[in-house]
Amino acid sequence: xxxxxxRPGVRPxxxxxxxxxxxxxxxxxxxxxxxLLHDSKSVLTDQLExxxxxxxxxxxxxxxxxxxxxxxxxxxxxxxxxDVAYRYFATPRRRFILADTPGHVQYTRNMVTGASTAxxxxxxxxxxxxxxxxxxxxxxxxxxxxxxxVVLAVNKMDLVDYAEPVFAAITREFTAYAAELGIPxxxxxxxxxxxxxxxxxxxxxxxxxxxxxxxxxxxxxxxxHDLTACHARFPVQYVIRPQTAEHxxxxxxxxxxxxxxFRVGDAVTVLPSGRTSAVxxxxxxxxxxxxxxxxQSVTFLLADDIDISRGDLIVPSTDAPPTTxxxxxxxxxxxxxxxxxGQRVLIKHTTRTVKAIVKDIPSxxxxxxxxxxxxxxxxxxxxxxxxxxxxAEPLALDAYADSRRTGSFLLIDPADGTTLAAGMAGxxxxxxxxxxxxxxxxxxx
Length: 445
Prior knowledge:
The chain is an alpha+beta fold. The protein is built from eight helices and 25 strands. The chain has helices at 29-39, 45-57, 73-78, 108-115, 133-144, 164-181, 214-220, 428-433; strands at 15-23, 85-90, 94-100, 120-126, 149-155, 187-190, 234-235, 238-240, 252-256, 261-263, 267-271, 275-284, 287-289, 291-293, 297-302, 313-316, 323-333, 339-340, 344-349, 352-366, 371-374, 378-379, 384-396, 408-412, 419-425. Helix 4 (108-115) runs parallel beside helix 5 and helix 5 packs across helix 6 (164-181).
């Protein structure tokens, strides 16, 4: 058993948390993000000076912290978030990558982009308005994307006199709706992003609240999902054949392990061909290793010279996903042009891209009440619906409920390369709303 020895004065590397903010227009998402950055001392002096200058030009005495993330000119002019703004910051306890997503219904698709890789979602609610239609829509998207942790941030508590009954009523309503979606228990925090209450520092105005601040929760929430415990999957990105005097017979298969772990000696299957072999070597950063795990980028050496190219998937022979040419999935349509039955598309799954055709669009989801609108005929921008896609070649997809990484795909317009829709294979949303009780571990996978 190997014991890790920590050198004196050297901190262990902080864990990384990806999180996204969501909520309705004017709920204060950008202000919350700006407050987090400002109060955690993660804003450079010149950035703060630029914000202060822009705020003065708009006639504001105090700096508008929302401008730290609303970088587009149209965003600053309209006072709304249009695009997803990504920011990196760190505290001594953890590193963070945050995505400040738009609140306007017109940009719901952008929220899907920002939350697709998030491990936590902060859903904001204006304490004066309570849970509104867009709040429900973003909560449903959080469930659809199976974001492992959810925070309900009841903002603008200063405008309701920091009243506990207001916070309690909103929490009850949101919790009831979250239960319908199958979301694991959300953590509710009363805040004022503008005044800084319970964002980084505890509020002196809400002594009735004894829970963590937003930053405390972000620093301590368990990021417990272990990719090495998932189904092992290795999409091939590139075949390496130097054919030099030093390496005349070297044939390696390079890529990034998306999930699980591989070891020298493992029996593996190459999909979609179904050919089998064994791992004889693993090269990592110029050296040979016995074991490699997600998300390391490595090169595999196999015992047999079989036909493998970019887009093939190497998996354990004892844990191979089925291949199919009929993909049933839930998709979020992100393009301005509609997605229609009979439309020819490209489907990109991991490193593999194949031709396909949209055979059917059985239903469109109404996020407000979670009802299904049957046979809509097409999906337009921001729509979420079920599709059946027939591919020209077999694909090896996991169910999105089992793996967010190998259960997701993109539909692309073959004419100009435009992304049409983001897809989640299988019945991921139906599984979440089918109300089997979520397990104690939540959705960590």
